[in-house]
Amino acid sequence: MKKIFFYILATGCLAGFSSCKKFLDVTASNQIKSEDLLSNESGFKDALMGVYIGMGQYNNYGAMQSYIATDILAQQYKPMVNLSIYFQLQAYNYQHQAARKYTDMFWDLYKTIAGINNALTQIDKQQTVFNPINFKVIKGELLALRAFLHFDLLRLYGHENYQGRPDLASFPAIPYITTYGKGVTPQKTYAETFALLLKDIQEATVLLHEDPIYPNTSRPANYYTSVNVDGFYNNRNSRMNYYAVKALEARVYTWMGGTANLQKAAQAAREVIDNGTAKLINSNNSGSTDRSFAAEHIFHLEVYSLALWAGALKSGSAADYNALFVDETAFNTIYELNDPQVGAVDKRQIVQFVQDGNGRTPVKLAAAPGQTSNKFLPVMRVSEMYYIEAEYELVNNREKAIQLLNEVRRSRGILKDIPESATADQVKLELTKEYQKDFSAEGQLFFYYKRNGFDTFRGLPSTIKGDDKLYMLPYPQNELELGNRVQ
């Protein structure tokens, strides 16, 4: 576990914090004690930044857990030929070595969690070295990140359609690790795991009332001046800010399902919509060069190698077996290009794809012509909050659900509304279409299918059924053997 922490520390040093550099200049790497690093406020800042940098690595959200592996699992791209490095993954042949290369790597998120837990183990002991504002915000972010990463591990390795399978509540879920050490953390039930998730989220929510992004009119104008001399509070949507925690809360309650939980999800989503800084795009906050709709980002990661890594998204030559793109027929179907009032005017298909080679290439993560390279990878966007609220209202107030979906559609330039007379099934279909259109190259569509237990979806071969065998990534073999895990 100490080696894991040092890995997080080393990546955190890349952020350029002077205290981390100074510490490493005078201490050999094999002699560093985390207690020494985490003895002052700067050390905790370094550790926190290391978490974000670790999350942005290629094997994590920087590529695999966003626009590559998880989107491949959602059949977002053309069918692969057997010469492709992704062929076995797209075919859900998880036991094949070529697929295990990708499914096992997500377990590395526990390395990042180890760094978080080490910092949380120390932070209360060191509270006296903090400015009170920084203490609350740093601890709040760490707790929120711990919940965020565990939840994504649950979404990857857990069972499908949890909301429709009450028997799963007593079944073992992923290990939810809250300590720092060498011991093996036993699995808890799904019910216990969700309770731990919500505990971290709720504690983070309270602490992040101190976040500059949280509206508090009682603060004096210079409240953050002294604590932000190093720019620590700039660009809050690049960090796990207060509204990102509320968005996570909305995701978790939606995954849990049931009327009461969906209502709580909708309430959290509405708070983000009403009070958060992320807003649906319009003519004032978005243009033709804003391919990722940055105004909508509740939380994004700054990935400085994004332009290089996103080079996998290309159509190009038919001989490029590893290229990831959408074939023309599928693209026309998804974005409804046959309807001039829907697909032809949808900003998503206009600015987020280019037509070249063999089909349509997603360019959401690439710089627009004349623009410097993009480094922002969206992790949570406000449109998802509209969809989450609409899902709750679909059962309680179908007219309001339709209104919410139409609000997002209009922001994308769509001229034809979903009619008020649409049935619940028709609205559900339109909601699915929105997820398919909105989350290209973001890795969220697979989780939508999994959460709702889709037994089939667009692009899935008729010979494959959407069930636990498809939706549950297998635990790494050494976890099953040495950790005595149950899946």
Automatic annotation (TrEMBL):
Q: Which domain of life is it from?
A: Bacteria
Q: Where in the cell is it found?
A: Cell outer membrane
State the PROSITE patterns in the record.
PROKAR_LIPOPROTEIN
Q: Does the keyword Signal apply?
A: yes
Kindly state which keywords UniProt assigns to this record, in alphabetical order: Cell outer membrane, Membrane, Signal
Residue stretches making up the RagB/SusD domain: 371-454
Query: A single Pfam family, by name?
Result: SusD-like_3
| The keyword Signal is annotated on this UniProt entry | yes
The record's similarity note reads: Belongs to the SusD family.
Write down what this protein is called.
RagB/SusD family nutrient uptake outer membrane protein
